[in-house]
Amino acid sequence: MYIPAHFAVTDSGKLAATMSRNSFAMLITQHEGAPFATHLPLLFTPDDKGRGTLSGHMARANPQWQDLARGDEALAVFTGPHGYISPSWYSQHPSVPTWNYVAVHAYGRATLHEDPQWLGALVRRLTAVYESGQPSPWQPDLPPDYERHMVAAIVGFEIAVTRLEGKYKLSQNRSSEDRQGVHFALTSSDSPDDQRLADCMAEEKLVEVE
């Protein structure tokens, strides 16, 4: 990913938090000589080296798991808040429109898992993570035959992350006055993504917030 120095984020804790908050990722490989992508939730487990492991599963009918089986490098893209930035929000002119966003790219090679017990544990872990915000969390109490049938239809994987790239494009290249104007416009918006972008600017201490 192209990352100008003023947009680069290397803090592994920040990158891990971004991947956890935006865990519905795009997994990209090369399949028969062409790019191939699958959209799926991935759970990131950090390690003490600033990297970690991505865990997930896909349908057995999805040919992408064969790319992972070959040991080719895979790319997982995590997209955070993003939004249009109008030059009308700036004090400095002339200026042009742009798009601000938060993104993390994770690279690595996968180990496949087809053991029913491993897959069952992963599915229960995923369920616990995403049900945790529900008013009445669903409990995976499935009939054994049905669970075996569903687990047999998926392939699990773990990607040992070898490289992380973070890009937080949040108007760092603009003056403090322009950043304040952008922040004010984003906080005034009804868009949840705009509100989250404004929060990111505040978290990165790019603006003064009362």
Share in β-strands? 35-45%
Distance between the termini: 35 Å
Shape: elongated
Model regions low in confidence, pLDDT < 50 over at least 5 residues: none
Q: CATH superfamily assignment? A: Electron Transport, Fmn-binding Protein, Chain A
User: Which architecture name does CATH use?
Assistant: Roll
The CATH class assignment is Mainly Beta
Radius of gyration: 20 Å
> What string, H for helix and E for strand, traces the elements in order?
EHEEEEHEEHHEHH
Number of helices: 6
CATH topology: Pnp Oxidase, Chain A
Number of domains: 1
Main sheet characteristics: 8 strands, antiparallel
Care to count the β-strands?
A: 8
Query: What is the mean predicted local confidence, pLDDT?
Result: 96
Judged by helices, strands and strand pairing, the structural class is: alpha+beta
Share of helical residues? 25-40%
Describe this structure in words.
- There is one protein chain.
- The chain has 210 residues and is α+β, with helices and mostly antiparallel strands.
- The protein contains six helices and eight strands.
- Strands 1, 2, 3, 4, 5, 6, 7 and 8 form an eight-stranded antiparallel beta sheet that branches.
- Strand 4 (43-46) and strand 5 (52-59) form a beta hairpin.
- Helix 5 (176-188) packs antiparallel against helix 6 (192-203).
